[in-house]
UniProtKB/TrEMBL annotation:
Regions that span the bilayer: 103-124
Organism of provenance: Lentzea pudingi
The protein's name: Anti-sigma-M factor RsmA
Stretches the record annotates as Disordered: 129-149
Keywords, in A-Z order: Membrane, Transmembrane, Transmembrane helix
Biased segments, Low complexity type: 131-149
Keyword presence, Membrane: yes
């Protein structure tokens, strides 16, 4: 909603509109006209009180740090978004600030309003259908390739960082075929990883067929591991062709 739009008529008003008013995200001139009318309506006032109560509850909760693998995936998405020609983001730092605002890390207003509104919707719509809890995740892509598939990226070890954007978009285990095989090859190189790779794809490293995996390495960092599928394994450290950590 912009300041050029008319103030919504009511009552009744939608929960979303009341939540926006409570969170302070409406234009000041709209909020100034809307608030006294909303506060004068008993039903709308109950929603405002529920939002206030939710704010108190959320403020009393202990802070929960974001898991490293979640932060790494968000940073990966923001890094891709920040690449020239893809989105009008000036820098990765600006993108991270946008992430913090979206997650409510820079202020609780919008997050609280969304949480409270969600709770109210559930209360008035108990029959809303929920997604199945046991829905299977899609299986990772294996080494099968079509006749029209592009050839693997040809890189030198010094160029691995330039391939991060492409590899992050892939989940292609190539000749490694399975996550278990990847885990065994990482173990052989003494590399531990807490979860699935952020991205994985066959590449050609200095003329040798290989597989590049991007692993989470803490906030704002990626670990780039290149494996030789012909020699890597749980007891074969020689199968690790490259292992480097970069900042994004």
């Amino acid at each position: 909603m912009t300041g050029m739009e008319r103030v919504p008529m009511g009552p009744p008003w939608s929960v979303d509109l009341i939540a926006d008013l409570h969170a302070g995200v409406l234009p000041p001139e709209v909020a100034a006209q809307l608030r006294p009318r909303v506060e004068a309506d008993p039903d709308a006032r109950e929603v405002l009180q529920a939002l206030d109560a939710t704010l108190v509850d959320l403020r009393s909760l202990p802070s929960v740090p974001m898991p490293d693998h979640v932060a790494a995936r968000i940073d990966a998405a923001l890094a891709a978004e920040a690449r020239p020609g893809i989105a009008p983001v000036v820098s990765l730092n600006d993108a991270r600030k946008r992430r913090n605002r979206r997650l409510g890390m820079g202020g609780a207003g919008v997050l609280v309003a969304a949480a409270a509104a969600f709770g109210i919707v559930l209360a008035v719509s108990p029959g809303a259908q929920q997604p199945p809890a046991n829905e299977a995740a899609p299986a990772p892509t294996t080494s099968s390739t079509s006749a029209n598939a592009a050839p693997p990226l040809a890189l030198s070890e010094a160029e691995l960082g330039s391939a991060v954007g492409e590899v992050l978009k892939a989940q292609n285990y190539g000749p490694l075929e399975t996550p278990d095989r990847l885990s065994g090859c990482l173990k052989g190189g003494g590399i531990t990883s807490s979860g699935n790779p952020l991205g994985i794809s066959p590449i050609n490293l200095d003329g040798k067929n290989a597989v590049m995996a991007i692993l989470p390495a803490g906030l704002g960092q990626f670990r780039l591991v290149v494996l030789d599928p012909a020699t890597c394994g749980p007891d074969k450290p020689e199968g690790v062709l490259a292992d480097t950590t970069i900042k994004r």
